[in-house]
Amino acid sequence: MILLYDHPLSGNCYKIRLLFSLLGLEYESKSLAVTGDRDGDRGEAFRAKTAIGKIPTVRLQDGRHLSESGAILWYFAEGTPYLPDDRFARAQVVQWMSFEQNNHEPNLAAARQWMSIDPDLHPSAEQIESWRLAGSRALDVMERHLSAHDFFVGDRCSIADIALYPHTEMAETGPFELGPLPATRAWLQRMRSLPGYVSIDA
Length: 202
Ligand SMILES: N[C@@H](CCC(=O)N[C@@H](CS)C(=O)NCC(=O)O)C(=O)O
Description:
single chain, alpha+beta, Glutaredoxin, Glutathione S-transferase Yfyf (Class Pi), Chain A, domain 2, 2 domains, four-stranded mixed beta sheet, 8 helices, binds glutathione
């Protein structure tokens, strides 16, 4: 059985739970701490399995481990409709997943972690403003694309959408507003309508 090292509030872990649910894949889940004494939960045994030491990490059925949400999504989407076959479309999936990791997640997830998850975080006003500005720019890029397209690559949901969904859906738990982004709100609704969709707190 696949084992997902997980946390119920983690947007990065939720990406994996969402893909597993859309694919109807069975798995077990083990929750690790994301605040406070993280190292207590991620001692030598965990680090021996994954050099990166973060969640999500999965243990495959054959015992190998894989970390980084994008790599895990790619591994399980291969051969399914969530990863296209076409060479250019696959490169576009990488393009949007790189955007998610570089421009989107670092700002939206950090701001949410500070506002609604970790009371011990005390970022400076400059840091908060930097997350807000850069995260808003990433949301604007998405809005522009979604004003002309139903999904990020091609005409159906791919792992590019799944990677971008969690922290966009939860953006308003940080210093962001989805009200002025109608195309993004319509896309969130399309994602929620997918057969097999699960919410973060399912
Ligand atoms: N780029 C990674 C980020 C993973 C990440 O930051 N995981 C967080 C939980 S969402 C974590 O393990 N934080 C605890 C720590 O950094 O020690 C991904 O997309 O999987």
